Amino acid sequence: MTHGYRSTTALGLGLSLLALPAWAGMDEARSFLDAEIGDMSVLSRADQEAEMQWFVDAAQPFAGMEIKVVSETITTHEYESKVLAPAFSAITGIKVTHDLIGEGDVVEKLQTQMQSGENIYDAYINDSDLIGTHWRYQQARNLTDWMAGEGADVTNPGLDLDDFIGTSFTTGPDGKLYQLPDQQFANLYWFRYDWFTDPKTMEDFKAKYGYDLGVPVNWSAYEDIAEFFTGRDMSYMGAEGEIYGNMDYGKKDPSLGWRYTDAWMSMAGMGDKGEPNGLPVDEWGIRVNENSQPVGSCMARGGATNSPAAVYAVTKAIEWLQKYSPPTAAGMTFSEAGPVPAQGQIAQQMFWYTAFTADMVGDGAGAVLNEDGTPKWRMAPSPHGAYWEEGMKIGYQDAGSWTLMESTPVDRAKAAWLYAQFVTSKTVDVKKSDVGLTFIRDSTINSQHFTDRAPMLGGLVEFYRSPARVQWSPTGTNIPDYPKLAQLWWQNIGDAMSGAKTPQEALDALCADQEKVLSRLERAGVQGDLGPKLNEERDAEYWLEQPGAPKPKLADEEEEPKTVAYDDLIQSWSN
After folding, report:
1. What is the domain-level CATH number for residue 24?
2. How far is CA 406 from CA 110, 140, 476, in A?
């Protein structure tokens, strides 16, 4: 696939990049702007060229350098790797290799670099879920000080940090920025709007359940809707094949853990109130003290990872996976399950990442698109479980963010920082967002381009323009070592999914495993006064009698089902 601008290999008839005249970079930049960006930018053409000129000038000391960066494999990063990296290389003379690997592999590489000090990659796009790790270990460059100090000469004066919507997720309790958001997506409820608003379907649902079919507000309504659609003949709506009322995944794989740490537990109501994360108990069930030191995960130490609300959350997920999902779903991973609703047999999904929106509007999504290309589906806030209370976190938002490690040599970090700013720049951000639909800039969300495109995106633009978006947040600062703790989740949850253990047994093992890691960190003292300081164990009943999480088991975990009309919901986002 060509994009109209020349690659670095076509630049110079054998000339080295160092030998290129100064104007060559801008020649390449103009070719790139003509072929790839056009008017799909919030900047005028003159301002685009001015920004590109800054990159050309700032990159001159590093021309001929080869750097390596890494990210997970999603549409946005594929665009960066295949289109923006070659363009940056051609414009600046810095040869970038942008590797695409699984998210678990990204975390593993980062962990290895932290432990060994070996410079494996010059920059990482890793989730802001690691903010608690980066703040405590101080092995990631503090970008606030970097931009004012060593990195000042390679920091774009047009970066405009205030335009980024996710910097609160990448800022530590010390007020310093540790990561720069590159892409963001939320987990929302997804459903077939055409089916939910069809008169026959609505009539049949109300006749069976006694209330209106609509966006479920709570898990009880979600379960009724899942039961209603599973096995239903929807051929009168043009649907083919077996219909299912739920979509999920259950393979024992690192991505299984994300399903639960990424707010499933908080949607059930396991943690405490608080935004962006519950305090003192967060959505991992980890409690911290007034100094932000983790003090426990099991109920015996005041945590909630093995609490009744957590057991309820996992039990419901397994039940819905078995009863209302395609038989193949139990053997799927996150990336395999994501595109399935686009095939046309899924009525709703509780927890659907908006990163898959691109799959829902592309060439292979005909089953869920109208003839004019508008979607037959919509997205809305996910319903909450029986333990959830007003003021708690509503859902998860991924913020894959550029991270510079202290172990990366300064010159390589500077070159990588230039690339990070290029792929997040105002010049390219509207086009990148148009491809991947993972918004990071307020100016992009509010651009005329996305006003025009909004009707094709099923509520995505309305969600990101609404004040509600701040109620979706990544993992917070309660988690002192994300790589070490995250791997415990998929292994233990996997035991519950497979039936090897009951949900209670699996969660008892999980919280105990988390406390082993916390205890090791405490003994090692590697995080100083910011690290864990475990509470003494006491009877769980003591903590269950205290306000907030962990919460005692409800006498009845089935609430009265409640739904809301989608159009009324969208209106509330606009208010």
Report:
1. 3.40.190.10
2. 12, 5, 22
